[in-house]
Design goal:
alpha/beta; D-Maltodextrin-Binding Protein, domain 2; 2 domains; 6-stranded mixed β-sheet; 5-stranded mixed β-sheet; 12 helices; 14% strand; binds calcium ion
Length: 363
């Protein structure tokens, strides 16, 4: 139980804090010539591998910025060198490289590790699951983070929230989607749990690497694809070859991205550098989401202005069918894995509560 604090005490403590701040700044001025004595002189150099191509918009850029912020906050004593996917290790071996200590840290998304840990995708994205704001609430203040740490701990890996795409788009289609049956025989690029959901409606879900999607859609190898949101989708050029752009991205209502850290490397860090890395990671998390939101706004307008694409919502019959199929997919997942069941129960309990709270929003 936290001790309750009365108003008088609060004002007294607030006075002490502001006094300390003033004293702190005076101390800083005095020590300018010799430098503050308490700061560790230790120097640390880390390698960070990522699941994204080097400098990839927002995702790769966010990793570069994290390294820059850590450098700035540590006055150049804590360096992180960022490698794009494939530069040092293959993109999808990011988790293994961190786990076995080949590198100290990585950046990626938990749903890539579903083969290793069936519960992992729930720490990134679940179809019809939580928004970015709700995920942050679950992570930082709602108990989700402890479950995530527990899941990765046996692998010697410590996770931290390190970005979020926000809500994605439903995808690009070359035929109108009017009925759940329109998924029958549809060849669609769709990863993760979303792939299992559309498969239940009769679609042939295809996983193709980002580099091949445009050509596959143009040549009719696939009939539809999801990617990210207007910013990344515009950069891929899908508005030049697809007729329809549907929303919402029911399959990725948000996608939390992660920084993953080798626990031995973490334990060796001076307390000061641990605090710096946590602060930089939290900043990367908010920077990434904010940049996605602002850029998606800008590029949705560009797609509207520069193309003839029909931008439309999935109708209620399609959304309803996808919801039913999602429930089946999640049921199958939790029945096959006890950890997934525990995580999903915590996730859905938090989600129900916060959705009620969010429904009081003015929007
Ligand atoms: Ca996506």
């Amino acid at each position: 139980m936290k001790k309750k604090i009365n108003r008088k005490e609060f004002i007294k403590k607030a006075g002490i804090v502001s006094g300390a701040l003033i004293a702190g700044s005076a101390c800083q001025t005095e020590s300018d010539s010799s430098g503050p004595a308490i700061i560790t002189k230790k120097r640390v150099s880390w390698k960070m591998v990522t699941t994204w191509p080097a400098n990839f918009p927002v995702l790769g850029e966010g990793c570069n910025m994290l390294a820059q912020w850590v450098d700035e906050m540590s006055d150049g004593r804590f360096k992180i060198k960022v490698y794009g996917g494939g530069e040092l290790t293959p993109a999808l071996q990011t988790f293994d490289a961190v786990s076995d200590g080949s590198v100290e840290m990585g950046n990626g998304a938990a749903y890539y590790w579903g083969g290793k840990m069936p519960a992992a995708p729930m720490f990134c994205s679940i179809p019809f699951g939580m928004s970015a704001q709700q995920m942050n609430a679950w992570m930082y203040s709602g108990g989700g983070y402890a479950l995530w740490e527990e899941l990765y701990r046996p692998f010697g890996v410590k996770p931290m929230p390190g970005g979020n795409t926000g809500v994605q788009m439903g995808g690009w289609f070359n035929k109108a989607m009017n009925h759940p049956d329109d998924y029958k025989g549809l060849k669609m690029r769709m990863p993760g749990l979303g792939a299992k959901v559309i498969s239940k409606l009769g679609a042939a879900a295809v996983v193709s690497p980002g580099s091949e999607i445009y050509t596959n859609l143009e040549r009719g190898v696939i009939d539809a694809t999801e990617w990210v949101g207007p910013y990344h989708d515009y950069l891929m050029g899908f508005h030049k070859i697809a007729k329809y752009y549907y929303y919402p991205g029911w399959h990725e209502p948000s996608a939390l991205l992660e920084n993953i850290i080798n626990i031995d490397a973490w334990n060796k860090l001076p307390a000061e550098f641990k605090a710096i890395l946590e602060a930089a990671s939290a900043r990367q998390n908010i920077w990434s989401l904010s940049t996605f939101e602002a850029k998606n706004n800008e590029y949705l307008n560009k797609i509207r202005q520069e193309s003839e694409v029909i931008i439309a919502p999935f109708n209620e019959s399609i959304i309803q069918a996808l919801r039913v199929a999602t429930d089946e997919v999640m049921e199958e997942l939790i029945e096959s894995d006890a950890t997934s069941k525990k995580v999903y129960q915590a996730y859905t309990t938090f989600r129900k509560g916060i959705s009620t709270w969010n429904s009081y929003d003015i929007l």
